[in-house]
Amino acid sequence: MADAGSWVVVGLDNGGTSNNATVLDAAGRFQVERLVETPSLVREGPAVAVEQLVLALDNVLELTGTPRSRVRAIGLDTPGPASADGVISSKGATNFVDPGWYGFDFRGALEARVGVPVIYNNDGNAAALYAHHVHFGPDSWERSSVSAIVGTGLGGGVVEAGHVVKGAAGMAGELGHVHIPLHGLLEDGQPIPACNCGFEGDAESVASLTGIEKNLLPFWLTRFPDHELARVEPIGKAAKLLRGHGENGDPLALKVFEQQAMAIGRLFTVAANFTDPHAYFLGGGVVEAAPHFREWFLETVKENILLREEQRRVATIALVRDLDMAGARGAALAALAAIVGR
Question: Which Pfam families match (predicted)?
Fold first, then answer.
């Protein structure tokens, strides 16, 4: 690999409220050990958002004392849905509600603005890529992994031989929309969970904040009608409070999170029979929870992954590290791989 001082790549993680940026040198060393955030202003439309990314770029370069001339490429990740080339869906998205975003070439616009190649991934894929490389290190290029990251939705990605699997239309690794078996997961009388994408019974309909709000919490409140969350309105606010209750051992909350963990375990079982990866990574809000609750959740996931003995001997099941920085770092790693031809 090139000398560390010769050139760098920059990773830009675009979100609904903030952009996070990092710098990765040619030797593969990150020059930033913390979040470096600036407002994303995506709700003000594409023109403003592109300039905010340029601001994020200049800010992290100033912080690390790096001249713009040393930047060989930029890795960009954004929420989806978007194409493999970074074109936002023609119908927009949760973070991209301004009509100017519909069908907007986000990657191309940033590349034209900064004059260096921009390598695109969606945010789930970028975080999955970082999880893979930080776990396997030098062996990353000979290993495979699947990551599930629980947030408002269920993101993640599939990494094979150190590269994100994108698919023909850029929609590979949409783990949240994989249908999972629900027998034994749902209680008697519990409705089939519905996803915002229009599917019923996919992983995101259970294992996501939206799944809690729309499906799980409304049902479990009928079983615990006197629970204090029954008095919290709107129900979206109650859903956001649920993790704290789970950390305190609340029976209703543990029922909800047990179903989520079961869903992820079943999702990883599908992955085991489809890609047979070396590692399964779990990320999201649960990773940021109290250690005892985090470990309970991970163990429940493990109990619900059905692996053959041969797979158990070689596979790892672990948490995504540095989740708040995983997007920017994964984006930077994708840019570095593009430059060095990996």
Answer: ROK
CA–CA dist 136, 313 (Å, integer):
17
Looking at residue 339, its amino acid is I
- Asked whether residue 1 carries a pLDDT value surpassing 60, the answer given is no
Q: 154 exposed, middle or buried (CB, 10 Å; 0-12, 13-18, 19+)?
A: buried
The pLDDT assigned to 3 comes to 55
Sheet holding 8-14, edge to edge: 37-39, 18-25, 8-14, 71-78, 118-122
Residue 84, pLDDT score? 87
**Structural domains of the chain in order of their starting residue, each with its CATH number:** 8-116 (3.30.420.40), 138-321 (3.30.420.40)
Q: What's the confidence (pLDDT) of residue 80? A: 78
pLDDT at 97: 84
DSSP string for residues in 71-101: EEEEEEEE-SSB-TTSBBPTT--SS--SGGG
Q: What is the pLDDT of residues 13-28, one digit of tens each?
A: 999 899 999 999 999 9
| Strand partners for 216 | none
